[in-house]
TrEMBL record:
Pfam families: DUF3822. InterPro entries: DUF3822. The lineage of its organism: Bacteria, Pseudomonadati, Bacteroidota, Sphingobacteriia, Sphingobacteriales. It comes from Pedobacter boryungensis. This is DUF3822 family protein.
Amino acid sequence: MNNNNSILLIDPTFDPATASACNLLIKVGLDSFSYAILNKETNQVSAVFDEQECENGAQKFAERLKTDPYLTLPYQLVKVAVHTQNTIAVPNDLFNENSLTAHSQYFIEEPVGEIYTQTQSHFGFITIFALPKTTNELLTSFTEGRKCSHQAGLLALAEKLNGTVLILDFSVGSFNALYIQNQQVIFQQCYEIANLDEFNYYLLLMINQLSIDTKETNLQLAGIIHEGDDRYNCLLKYFSEVAFMATTTDLDQQVLEDMPAHYYSSLLALDQCV
């Protein structure tokens, strides 16, 4: 990270003229913004950009669209996952594709613009979501792009895990939680955290309200967290085993060789989402 809390890692051989053979993955978090360029012909991660501690992830997205030439190349496919409070999960047998407004009445805020759906076939439900107004307006640049729920990357990673699993995906100032038992999603939520005390509070809230057996739960960590830092040590007070979650694909990630493998696992996992 530089003094602006951002980093750009790029393969020096990457040629923007090859963008038509590449996928662009964009992740707009509550307080972060990141993207990755994947060359689908060589199965290579060509570039990763990440900015942490944004006042607003969507606002940072807007700024980068004006200044970052890599975001406006003619890609083969663009996938965008955006943090939004307007999201619900509906079991397959209760979903009515002809009446999305009936489902959207359970959103926290009145939706603005299109209502999107994403099928989670492995877990047996449909994610219904609407993007924040500012982000909705920005995505006119990607009319053909695929819109994903903000938990899509984690759900893709979770498909390969068995038993009772708690996945925590961190930015500097927030974390996404996904709790799964026997291949069923029990709980998913995003929490903003200003300090360690707030993190400890939300962690205990989940443990108590979900009756999580910390000795029998497989805890998987992704994002901006390190072995030995305060949040990691806090987790060790409650969980007997802690593991870091890397992508399970055969992507060539040489451009990320100097970074912890779990930093961008949920971003890169967007490529697995349909």
